[in-house]
Design goal:
Two copies of one chain form a homodimer. In chain A, a hairpin with a 7-residue loop joins strand 1 and strand 2. With 471 residues, the first copy, chain A, is α/β, with parallel strands linked by helices. Chain A has three domains: 124 residues, Gyrase A, domain 2; 127 residues, tRNA modification GTPase MnmE domain 2 (Four Helix Bundle (Hemerythrin (Met), subunit A)); 171 residues, 3-Layer(aba) Sandwich (Rossmann fold), CATH 3.40.50. In chain A, helix 5 crosses helix 8, helix 6 packs antiparallel against helix 7 and helix 14 packs antiparallel against helix 15. The first copy, chain A, is 46% helix and 18% strand. The first copy, chain A, is built from 16 helices and 14 strands. Chains A and B meet through strand 2, strand 4, strand 5, strand 6 and helix 2 of A and strand 2, strand 4, strand 5, strand 6 and helix 2 of B.
Chain lengths: 471, 471
Amino acid sequence: MIYDSSDIIAAPASGSGGAISVIRISGAGSVAMVSSLFIPGPENNDSERSLITARGFTLHYGYLKDRDAVIDEVIVSVFRQPHSYTGEDSVEISCHASPYIEHKIMEMLTGKGARAAMPGEFTRRAFINGRIDLSQAEAVADLIASESEASHRLAMNQMRGGFSQEINSLRDKLLQFASLIELELDFGDEDVDFADRDDLKATIGQVREVTETLAASFRLGNAIRNGFPVAIAGRSNSGKSTILNGLLRDDRAIVSDIPGTTRDAIEANLNIGGILFRFIDTAGLRETSDIIENLGIRKTYQKINEAMVVLLVTDATDGADIINATVEIILKQMGSAAKELVLIINKCDLLESGQCMELHKSVNLPTGVRSLMINAREEDEIARLRDLLLEITGSGDAGNTLIITNSRHYSALTSCSQALKRAEEGMADGIPFDLVAMDIRQATYYLGEITGAITPDEILRNIFKNFCIGK
Amino acid sequence: MIYDSSDIIAAPASGSGGAISVIRISGAGSVAMVSSLFIPGPENNDSERSLITARGFTLHYGYLKDRDAVIDEVIVSVFRQPHSYTGEDSVEISCHASPYIEHKIMEMLTGKGARAAMPGEFTRRAFINGRIDLSQAEAVADLIASESEASHRLAMNQMRGGFSQEINSLRDKLLQFASLIELELDFGDEDVDFADRDDLKATIGQVREVTETLAASFRLGNAIRNGFPVAIAGRSNSGKSTILNGLLRDDRAIVSDIPGTTRDAIEANLNIGGILFRFIDTAGLRETSDIIENLGIRKTYQKINEAMVVLLVTDATDGADIINATVEIILKQMGSAAKELVLIINKCDLLESGQCMELHKSVNLPTGVRSLMINAREEDEIARLRDLLLEITGSGDAGNTLIITNSRHYSALTSCSQALKRAEEGMADGIPFDLVAMDIRQATYYLGEITGAITPDEILRNIFKNFCIGK
C-alpha cells in the first residue's frame, strides 16, 4: 500500500442497498474537481451559486454531468480545510443509490485525477493532519462496529479522547523525569541530582499501577466489544436449550446472528440490558468411552475454556450425587482459569416444596461459586438469571471507568509496565542510572505508541488496513 | 398503510455496511426536532451556530445527545421548504454507520414524535407537494435499480420529465377538444359546432399514433430495464457453453449474478456496451422419446419463448442436414412470436477452408434471419457476435427517443388508445356526440393516470409500496 497524502482521494462512504449513496472526496483541489463535473440546479441559496468558491459547511443542489449526459441529480456538501473530517478540503456527493451511478461517479472522479481511497485512508489523513490521535482513530472503527450500548459507550469515550488524555498525562510525567535524569547524566561529573529519587520511585509506581489497571481492563473491554462468552453446559436433557430459548424469548433481549457460525454451532448473540452476550450451547456432558461422543465432549470442553462464564445446568430430579459428579467434572476442566461458574439447579418445580433447598445444601460448591434454583420454563425465573448475568459481568459501570478494548493498546500497556518494573528493580539494585533512564524512555515509547505520538509505519499500516473503505 | 402527511417522518436512507449512514427526517418542525437533540460542535460557520434558525442548504457539525450520553458526532444538513426533496422542511443526519447508532437515533427521533417512514414515503410527499409527478416518482425507483448505462439513461430521462411533458401535451390537446365538445352539448338546441370535426379527427389520430408508438416501445424498454433475454439453444456439444463463456470472458462484459436464479438455471447477466443482456443457457435440443429428457426440452422451449433473441448454436461438422433439421425444430417452436433468431455455425475452423461457406449456402433460412460463422474459441469471433447482439437490440439510440419501461404506463397507454379508437369508430358510425365525448374524456383520464394528474389512492399505494425505505 502506498499512501500519498497529496492526492485527491475518493470512495463511496455509505453502504449498499439504500436510497441514497454518499461519495466522499478529500484533498486540496477536491472542491474544484467536483465543481468541474457539476451544474448547479435552480434551488440553492443565492449567495452560494458557485461551487468552486463555496464556503465550508454549505450544501449545493444540482446535476453531475459526464460531457452531455446527466448522470444524476445530487446534493454536494462542501467542507473547507481545516474544518473537515480529514482536515483537508473535502466534498461529499449525495447521489441516488444505484450501483451504476456510484460506479460512474467514481469513474468520472478518477478520470479527473482522483484516486480510489484505500481502507481507512480518510481517517489516516485525519490522524496525519493532527485532527485526531491514533487511539481516537481506532475508536472510529470500533464505533462503527459496535453492536451494543456498552461497546458503543466505550468506543465513544475513546473517540472523544478520554483514554488519550489519561495516556498522555502518564507519559508527560515519565517524560519529565526522563529529561531530568538525562540532564543529570549530562552533568555526570558534578554529581548533582535534578530528579528527586523518592519522587521518581513514587511516580514510576503510580504510572505502573495505572497501566496495569488499564491492561487488566482489557479482558472486560474485549468482552464488552465482542460479547461476553457464556458457555451453557450440562448433561443432556438438563434444560440447556430451554434456558437459552428462555433468554432469547425475553422481550428485552435483542437477538442477532453471528454470520457463518450460528449454523455450525448453536451460538446466539443476545443484547441483555445493553451488554452483548455470546451464548454457546454445548453438547451434553457425560462420562463416555464412545469415540465419536468423546470428540463432541472435547469440543464442549474447548467451548468451556473459551467462555468467561460457565452456566452449568443440572436437573434437580437427578439428585445430589449426579449433580456433585457433574460439578466435579466441570471444575476439573475449568482448572484455575479466571472464569465464573454458575450452578443452575433446574426443574425445581418437579420436587416437593423445600426439597430443592435441601438438595442445594448437599451440593459441594467451592466458595464464591454462585447458584440459582429455577424452573427454566418460567419467565420470571429466567429474568433472575438475566439479572445474575448482568451482575457477574459487572459492566454496568463500564462508562465511568477507563476500559481498554484494543489488543494493540493492551500489549503496549503491558510492555510499558514491564519496562517500569525493570526501572524499579534497577533502582532497588542500584544499577547505573543511565540504564534506569533507558527503561523509563522505553516506557514512554510504549505509551506514545498508543496515541500515535510515536508511530512506526508498520503500526499505521496495520491499523488502517482493517478499516472499511470510505472511512 | 396509513399515510399522514402532517407527521414528521424519519428513516435511514443509506444502505448498510458503509462508513457513514444518512438518516432522513422530513416534515414541518423537523429542524426543531433535530435541534432539540443536537449540540453544535466548535467547527461551524460562525453565522450558522444555531440549528433551529439555520437557513436551507447549510451543514452543521456537532453531537447528538440522548440526555447526557453523546450518541454520535454528526453532520446535519438542513433543507427549508419548498427547496427540499419532499418540498417540506427536511434534515439529513450523517452519522457513523453503526447499526447501534442508527437504531438509537431512530429511537430518539421517534421519542420526540417522529414516525418511521414507510417505503417510498419521502418520494410520495414530493409528489403530493407537487415537486414531481407520478411518472417522475416512478423513475426515481428505476434510477436506483438501474444496472446498465442504457437503463440508467431511460430512468434519468423519465425522472427529468421528458416523458411527462409528452403525455401532458397529448392530454392537453384532448382536453381542449373534450371541453369544446361539452360546450357544444350545453348549447345542444342551438346546433352550433365549436369543435371542428376534421381537426378533432386529425388530433385523435395523432394522439392515438403517439400513444401506440409509446406503448409499443414497452417491449424494448422493459428489456433495457431488466436485460434483453437471450436464449442460447442448440444440440448438445454444439458449443453453447463455449459461446457463453467467451462472452463472459470478454473484458468489456461486466458479469453480474441474478440472485436465486443463477444456481437453478444457467443464467448470466452481461453488460455489453452499456446494455444489459440476460443469457439463458438451455438444455441440449434433440428429438427424443425419453420422458425425463422431454421435460428438460420442454423447459428449453419455455426459455426460448421467453427470450427476445434466440442464438441457435450448430456444429459445422454435423453437416447441412442436421443443421437444417435443428433450424426447423426451432422455427416451429418460435412460431410467429416477435423474436429474433440468429443461426451460429460454430467450429468452422474444423472444416477445410471454404467448406463452411458452402455449408452455409445449403442451410435453409427464412429471409431476415441472421447467421454467423465462427469459431467460438477465438476472442475476435466472439467480438463479432457481441457486435451483432448490440445491432439486433438496436438500443444504441435509446436515449434519443421516448421509450417506456413501466407496465403501469403501458397499460394506461393501451387503454388510452383503445378509448381513442372507440371515439374514432363512433365518429365514423355517426353515434351521438356525447358518447364520443365520453370516450375522449376516458382517454384523457388514462393519460392523467400516468403523470398522476388523476390518481386513485390504490394506484398510489401500489406505486410507493415497492420503493425502498428512506426514499
